[in-house]
Write a structure and sequence with these properties.
Layout: H1 2-16, H2 33-36, H3 42-54, H4 74-81, H5 95-103
Helix pairs in contact: 3-4
Length: 104
Amino acid sequence: AYTAGEVREDLWQLRADGVRAAELRVGPLAVTAELLGRCLAEAPARDVADALRSHSLVDERGHLRHDGRARRWVGAVRGAITGRSNDTLVADESCIAEIMNVAW
C-alpha cells in the first residue's frame, strides 16, 4: 500500500511535468526451485524451496506469506544452504535476498 501510494504520486508528478509515464503492476512470484536457480545450484535450490514450505513461509502456491524484507525466511534458508552456497543472505547484497524481495 505504501509503495503503491508512492508510485501514484510519482506518476502524477511525472505527468504534470509532461513526461509520458505508465504504471506496470506485477503480482507475487512463487518461490520455486526454478526461481531460486538464479542464485543456487539445482539441489540447494530445491532444498530451499522445500524448507520454505516445511516452515510454512510460503502458501500452497509457493507465494511468500510475509514481505521478504521482513526476513522471516533467513533461518530456514540458512539451514538449507550452509556449506553449499556462499550467499551471505545480507539484505541488498544477497542474490537470494533479492529474489525474496522480487517474489513478494
